[in-house]
Specification:
Chain lengths: ~70, ~550
């Protein structure tokens, strides 16, 4: 997994990412992000790199307490 | 330390009020950093001007504080950079925080041996004081008039006539050229009904100058996203001259009462929480909002617009004051060359071409910063949270964190004044300024730019490796015989009685990616106009003509 800067124009990318969300509501915006994950995963290709990226994305994120309670039932 | 004592500059009765009617080559409206820089630059290039200043003192509050390396290089021509460095706070990087945690520290790109730091922080009123001291030394060139408010303007064949209101009455002031450096609420822009529209950013910011006791440890620029002391917003801290600190708090948009927020009882608790000090003395506070906009044309016949009168940006990135200084730098030599008869009027059109491109670049870059900072929708806030959360561990995410992309000199890549760019793999391309490197191993020998861009001359740098080079000497003689305003400097080995710049370590040649026989043509503002791998008399002469606007077409389609 690449961790060092690899984007040719980071600010240009972020601007484009925000623009892609323009006018979408919460649910549709989440769907856009999900589609984008799939498209970018296909660019990466290598499952090992994708697993490492998934772990890095998950790091520090905890399930909300309500979800734990639901699992316990 | 007592608060800053604002000087009071007296009104002096001008000759016009006693029936005399002198005509001026250049009238500058506004005596802030941009107007004063332009006046000083014109004086250095042998042109006199009159400066009309409505107020009777310097800027209220610190306002523009971060002066960039390029601004210092420009102001160094008038001896103003050294006193700014002595009194101001020098910095080359900063720290960025998310909540209570530092996520990274950055260093601004800069050659380690350049003359000036990336930035010096000095409150605007002190910078103006230093510019005014330089103006006073050039009183024979610069006629600075306090309490002189422009309230009328009409265009006439051969220039414009300003009407000036003073405590002792009004008068007409004819000038061949007028430069509006009168700020975001420009009177000249209003008098000419020039539209100034753009994007309003829906956010308020509280800005204040404070002194604290005990003082904070000397610090680089610090920027916080979502700090514990100011939940949900951003905050910025800068050290200034004279032990003052500049604080800047994002306040949001809805329900913000600007008057109430700047009151000490509201502002001080915020500042105490930020700095962790109870003993805080408030010198100045203000609440501001901002827009990103520029006027469509920076030139309207004999009238030019510079600085905030022409364009406004978000303050994050220090691109307001510094781009104004660069506007003045861009216009000064062009006016001087046209007024002295060495260049056609069309050269002045290139001011719009070059500086409107710079304004667009500054607006684009600062708007991206503002979009990142204000995160207006839930999705933008979530994307920003994602970036900040990854930034501590992952370098790529740090590159996405945007707390301001700090001002650098604009490169005029597509300028109509640019000429040949012949086979260089590095070094400054046409349109770019040059690194200000030491002239020798001994710093007291000065720096490369010290002797370049003086008067109204272009500079030719000829990289010469041979002490006897009769072929080059003959070509340089032919170039000089073309009677263009030009100063020739040989780098490496001296030749004839041309100026000579030694380069025993090859440091300068490397910075210019130069080989023996390489040639750089620099404009009077020290930006590169053209460069060649070999010395070719015809090409160099054509390059100088192009840099001075002789190839430009006038608006009516005829060659200038």
């Amino acid at each position: 997994m690449k961790s060092d800067p690899n984007l040719s124009d980071p600010d240009g990318f972020f601007e484009a990412l925000i623009a892609a969300h323009e006018g979408l509501d919460e649910a549709t915006g989440n769907l856009l992000n999900a589609r984008l994950v799939l498209l970018l995963a296909n660019q990466v290709g290598d499952l090992a790199v994708l697993r490492e990226s998934l772990a890095a994305a998950r790091e520090g994120l905890e399930p909300p307490p309500a979800a734990e309670a639901a699992t316990a039932e | 330390m007592p608060g800053y004592l604002y000087p009071s500059f007296p009104f002096r009765r001008p000759p016009e009020l006693d029936g005399k009617q002198p005509a001026y080559a250049v009238a500058i409206v506004g005596g802030g950093p941009v107007g004063l820089t332009l006046a000083l630059d014109l004086a250095e290039r042998g042109q006199s001007c009159v400066v009309l200043q409505a107020a009777s003192t310097v800027s209220e509050g610190s306002r523009a504080i971060c002066w960039s390396k390029r601004s210092l290089e420009i102001l160094d021509r008038f001896g103003v950079a050294e006193p700014m460095l002595r009194r101001g706070f020098t910095w080359n990087g900063g720290r960025v925080y998310h909540g209570a945690e530092e996520i990274y520290r950055f260093t601004l790109p800069r050659e380690p041996d350049e003359k000036f730091p990336a930035f010096v922080n000095l409150q605007q009123y002190l910078t103006e004081e230093m510019l005014l001291a330089a103006v006073a030394e050039r009183a024979q060139w610069i006629d600075l008039r306090w309490q002189s408010r422009v309230d009328g303007l009409r265009l006439e064949p051969g220039g414009a006539v300003l009407h000036v209101a003073t405590p002792e009455g009004g008068y007409d002031l004819p000038a061949r050229f007028v430069v509006a450096c009168d700020g975001a609420r420009s009177t000249v822009r209003a008098l000419m009904a020039v539209p100034f529209e753009g994007r309003v950013f829906e956010d308020h910011f509280l800005i204040a100058d404070v002194e604290v006791s005990p003082d904070l440890p000397s610090s680089e620029r610090r920027f916080w996203f979502l700090p514990e002391f100011h939940p949900g917003e951003t905050a910025l801290l800068h050290r200034q001259g004279d032990g003052l600190w500049r604080v800047d708090f994002q306040l949001g948009w809805d329900g913000v009462d600007a008057q109430a927020e700047k009151a000490p009882e509201r502002a001080l608790p915020r500042i105490r929480a930020m700095l962790g000090r109870q003993d805080v003395r408030l010198h100045w506070a203000s609440v501001y909002t901002f827009q990103a906009r520029r006027i469509a044309q920076l030139r309207h016949g004999p009238v030019f617009f510079a600085g905030d009168a022409a364009h406004q940006v978000s303050p994050f990135g220090a691109r307001g004051g510094n781009s104004g200084i660069q506007d003045a730098d861009n216009l000064g030599w062009k006016l001087a060359l046209v007024l002295s008869g060495h260049a056609p009027d069309a050269l002045l059109d290139s001011y719009h071409a070059e500086r409107s491109t710079a304004a667009d670049e500054n607006i684009r870059i600062t708007s991206r910063t503002t979009d990142f900072m204000t995160a207006k929708t839930a999705m933008r806030a979530r994307l920003r949270t994602a970036v900040l959360g990854l930034a501590k561990r992952h370098g790529f995410a740090r590159a996405l964190v945007n707390s301001g992309r700090l001002s650098t000199a604009t490169v005029y890549r597509d300028s109509p004044l640019n000429g040949d760019d012949q086979g260089f793999a590095g070094g400054p391309p046409p349109g770019a300024p040059c690194a200000n490197l030491p002239a020798s191993a001994n710093p007291s020998d000065g720096y490369l730019l010290d002797g370049l861009g003086t008067d109204i001359q272009c500079d030719l740098l000829y990289f010469n490796a041979e002490s006897a080079n009769p072929a080059a000497l003959a070509k340089l003689a032919a170039i000089q015989a073309a009677e263009q305003p030009l100063s020739i400097t040989c780098v490496g080995q001296p030749l004839g009685n041309h100026w000579f710049q030694a380069d025993p370590t090859g440091r300068i040649a490397r910075a210019f990616a130069a080989r023996p026989d390489s040639v750089y043509l620099l404009r009077p503002d020290q930006h590169v106009a053209a460069r060649w791998r070999t010395l070719d008399t015809e090409r160099v002469i054509a390059g100088i003509r192009r840099a001075l606007g002789h190839d430009l077409r006038r608006a009516d389609g005829r060659t200038a």
